[in-house]
Design goal:
Blueprint (H helix, E strand, L loop, with lengths): L15 E3 L10 H7 L8 E4 L4 E3 L9 E2 L11 E3 L4 E5 L2 E5 L1 E4 L4 H4 L7
Parallel strand pairs: 4-8
Antiparallel strand pairs: 1-2, 2-3, 5-8, 6-7
């Protein structure tokens, strides 16, 4: 049976692990998303009481920000109109994409989105 508390923040909520991380700690959803900022196509799993179930980072609130360095937040994010589907070597992933709506929009190639 997995630990009863998040490895990172010690909260006692629904716990998750990453199938792709080496010796993955059990974490709450927000800590798991934060620890995967650079790894958005890993495969998270939710503890369901008796077994683990696959979930998508998109359902845990992860947003992939385009037009900025990885991990940098945009002051004026523009959500993509639809969820994107990404085909990766480890499977198919749903992804919530955000474009830059600020001063980096031109460099990111999405200036037409802010008109």
């Amino acid at each position: 049976k997995p630990s009863d508390a998040c490895y990172t923040c010690a909260s006692k909520v629904t716990l998750y692990r990453c199938k792709d991380c080496f010796t993955p700690p059990m974490q709450c959803a927000s800590c798991l998303v934060a620890s995967h900022t650079h790894l958005p196509f890993h495969r998270p799993e939710k503890w369901a009481g008796q077994h683990f179930e696959r979930v998508q980072f998109a359902s845990l609130g992860m947003r992939i920000q385009l037009g900025h360095p990885i991990g940098q937040r945009c002051a004026v994010p523009i959500a993509a109109r639809k969820k994107m589907v990404v085909i990766h070597t480890n499977g198919i992933h749903n992804a919530n994409i955000q474009y830059c709506g600020g001063d980096r929009a031109d460099a990111a190639g999405n200036a037409h989105l802010i008109s």
